[in-house]
Amino acid sequence: MLTIKNIVNLTGHDVVVFQEATGKPGARLELTDQGELEVLASFPPQGSPRHLEIREESGVIRLVNDSSELEIPSGVESYTGRLLNLPDPEQGTLFIVSRISASASTRHDLVFPAREVRRHGIVVGCRSLAFPRSMPTTVQ
Predict the structure, then answer these.
(1) 140 residues of the chain, pLDDT tens digit each
(2) Residue 15, phi then psi, degrees to nearest 5
């Protein structure tokens, strides 16, 4: 178990963590594709979303067949592995980022929403916050 003081959401959207309904009075329940779940915690976004730096090269895909000719914008996009706009580590604080951003970093204070919860096929939350590697025992 990891004990922390703060969780900061650096994504561009709310991160809602769900659990099985406990039956507690006043608990917030939501109907999802997985059934009725209880909201355990909700983390509003703080600041601008953090992103991986992307290297881009432009190109075109030309589709030619018997009935038409079409040029579709294309190219190459690859992640450089460099995270942009990420705050410095803070003692006892975890930062929620995208799965790809957490996986690209060597930092131990980055988590991502895992075990997605959907409503009508659209992700509305998660069941856990995951580390891309092993779970640390402290966050420095």
Answers:
(1) 899 999 999 999 999 999 999 999 999 999 999 999 999 999 999 977 767 888 889 999 999 999 999 999 999 988 777 888 889 999 999 999 999 999 988 899 999 999 999 999 999 999 999 999 877 877 87
(2) -115, 115
**Residue 119 DSSP label:** E
Q: What is the pTM of this model?
A: 0.82
Euclidean distance between CA atoms 29 and 79, whole angstroms? 38
Residue 66 CB partners (closer than 8 Å, separation 6+): none
Asked if residues 6 and 94 have their Cβ atoms less than 8 Å apart, the reply is yes
> What is the side-by-side order of every strand in the sheet holding 29-32?
6-9, 93-96, 110-119, 122-130, 15-20, 35-43, 29-32
Length of the chain: 140
Q: Which two tokens stand for residue 9?
A: 């959401």
